[in-house]
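Reading a protein record of the kind used here takes only a little practice. The integers have meaning only within a learned vocabulary of local backbone shapes. With that in mind, consider the following protein and its fold in token form:
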Amino acid sequence: MSTTTAVAPLSTADAETLVTTARRAAEAAGVTVSVTVVDAGGHLLTFRRDDRAVLISGETSTRKAYTALQLNAPTADLVDAVQPGGLFHTLPTALDRPLLFIAGGVPVRREGRLIGAIGVGGGAPEQDHAFATAAVEALV
């Protein structure tokens, strides 16, 4: 008999909390960003781009979220893995949906289970990672 307990999925309210927290962290740092939140299936839950954020930040935030979800790891931890000789060197070009190995994507877990991911783009990679991490920590 299985005793698996259900874990609540990432809700739209959760996604809004993630976006709001990441944007507030970015605003406090004087950075304009785009923020993407995807659910456990990789489907878009929420996307927000600041009016003055560079246009490419929308694409990068989405790819970062998707990459963090697919590999269940912060994209900041994966940067070295795609370098020549790295474990995932060919992975960025191996899939139909493009992955992005730049810091700023962070998985979202509830009770140890992967329920989605957030991606932030627009600042320096370290900043994007910090904003995404702050958002995930605020959700818990």
Summary: The radius of gyration is 15 Å. The helical segments are 12-28, 56-71, 91-94, 125-139. The first strand starts at residue 34 and ends at 39.
